[in-house]
Amino acid sequence: MKKIFITGASGKLGSYLYPILKKEFKILGTSNKKKISNFKKIDLLDNSNLRKQLNKFNPDIIIHLAALTNVDLCEKDFDLAYKTNILATNNVVNWCLETNSSVKFIYISSDQVYNSKTLNSEESKIDPLNLYALSKIISEELVCQLTNAIILRTNFFGYFPNNNGSLIDWLMEMIKKKKKTNLVTDINFNPLYVETLCMLIKKIILKKNLKGIYNLGSKNKISKGMLLYKFVEKLGFKKDLFSFVSAKKINFSAPRPLNMYMSVKKIEKDLKIQMPSINDELNHLKNSLLERNAI
Fold first, then answer.
1. How far, in Å, CA of 106 to CA of 226, rounded?
2. Integer CA distances (angstroms), 87 to 84, 94, 96, 143, in order
3. What is the pLDDT of residues 170-210, one digit of tens each?
4. Helices 194-206 and 12-22: crossing angle, nearest 10°?
5. Closest listed residue to residue 194, CA positions, set 9, 5, 17, 11
6. Any residues with CB less than 8 A from the CB of 82 and at least 6 apart, and which?
């Protein structure tokens, strides 16, 4: 049985990915939080202990999810972003370089590395507008030192009641409070539903000889505001609480790229799959919330 070491296993993506992979792999899920069942508390900045745990487990695959993803917080506190996103990545990569260079290393990057007016392919120019994006690019460069590395540029949405900072959780809170809410109409992307992303990661794990950078997203683009608006429609809630504004009207601490729409042709070709539409993904989210009795 293949052994997988997952950093950030208690985070938004990890909380969905861990139970899916646990069915077929031996997993060591790590977290920087205390007293979380199934996960081992490991500080990725404690290089000595990190190396000890990696040596003991000796993984075949490392999935590096741990990151500071709050874009505005990265802008306000780059020292924290550097330690969490860059230094931690460097520590895990260095173990691979020095100890187990054959390990398959899957790194979760971000669509925020792009900032163009056209469709972004894996070969498109990267242009970080904020410090979060810069930290992901630097981390990508560290990961690229490995011979068996896969970098996944992506964005995802879902329902994460045990984690903070999710678009959907924020939307549900606004609906619950019946609060007037502005939705950004000019930041475009093509995210995936979190469970879809997890199943793609599983396919990538099982696929031999897959290396390099891949965009993972849905087939079509949508603005962040319209994604939320369409979801409100699907849930049958009143839409009069919502109005559309440009990103300039929102008091972000960090600048945001306006077009993160990514081409997914490369992953479709290499995995021989068809990526889903935004509408498909919103339906999956709705069904998941109904199953959880969350709506």
1. 31
2. 6, 10, 14, 12
3. 888 888 888 888 999 999 999 999 999 999 999 999 999 99
4. 50
5. 17
6. 135
